[in-house]
Structure formats: structure tokens, C-alpha cells
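Model it.
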Amino acid sequence: MNKEDILKDVIYWAGRSYKAKMAPATSGNISRIEGDTVFLSRSGVCLGDMWNEDVSELDLNGNVLNGVKPSSEKLMHLEIYKKRPDIKAIIHIHCPYVTSFAVCHKKMDEPILPEFIFNFGAVPSAKYALPSSMELANEVSEYFKNGNNAVLMENHGLVAGGATLKEVFYRLESIQAYAKTYFAAKFLGKIHTLNKDEIKKIQNLKG
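Modeled.
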């Protein structure tokens, strides 16, 4: 894919993330990797207002290649790419419904929706570390190394990865739907979870 198409892809899915209320104001960041170059949203940009000049280009050592200051969470993106070569795209969000789980230090693991069980099983919660720090990058990337495709960060937000930005966005929509459903169900009354046999049958659908 040429550079023009890569920039279009990043900007399109950044805009979709903002419109879906996943990254309010200037929170959140988005990237994809092509070869050895990481295309990452610049520092302080709103994902809903991105243009070509709002995309920083980095190598895997974090060196800026085009003079655009990258998001302060560049270390986290780079470490995930290094530890999971199959991941080619990452979106980090601050959706209030999802972030509420991170604030409560609560992983997403209650078996209430078959689709969520099938796609994730559970979304773990990484312990708190200073945003933008190497400590946070190491903590979160270890979860990805162990096979997770989405990770909550205590008192911070959530980050997800995948083969394409489209795949990542759909994962985030599924997680956001889980969070909203959980809160609405809590308001309505008692939550009824699926039992172990029902969960096993869902997991067996993967073959």
C-alpha cells in the first residue's frame, strides 16, 4: 500500500473512532505499521480533526522520520508492534463506558453476551503506570505478547490491536457495546450470566 492510501486509512478510522465517542476531545491515538515504518497520530490532535499533516512517521526505535511530533503514547504502540508481529494496527481509546471498568480496576469478564465470549473471552486490566511511560508500554505489551488483542489500563483507558484498522475498530465497537450493555443491565436489575456449559458451547464454535 502506498503512503497516500495509508494516510487515508489512518485518518478515516481515526474519524470513525471519534464519531463513535471512543476518544473525546484530544484523547486517544491511532497507528498502523507498514514495513518498518509506524504511522502514528501526532501529539495533541483530536482524532476527529486529523489531516495528512497530523500523522507522524516513526521507525521501530522511535526516531521521527517526517518532523511531526508523535503521540506521547508512542512507546506503547512500538512495544506492541515489536512483541506481536501479526498486529499491524492499534487504536487507544478513552470511551467513558469502557474506561469506567479501568477506573474500577475491573476486567471485562462477566459472560453476558455470546459474541463477546466468542471474540474475547475476557479483556484483562493492566496495572496502573504513568501514561506515556516505558513502564506502561512494557506492562501493556506483555498482555499482547500473551495473546490478548485488547487490554484495559487502570485509571486510563483501553488499547486494542489487529491486522487492520478496520478489524481493530470493530473490536472496539464490540467492547463498547459490552460496556454499555453491562451498565444498562445493572440499572434495570439483576444480571444473568451464561453458565459454564453455555460458555463452552460458544467457545467450541471456533472449532
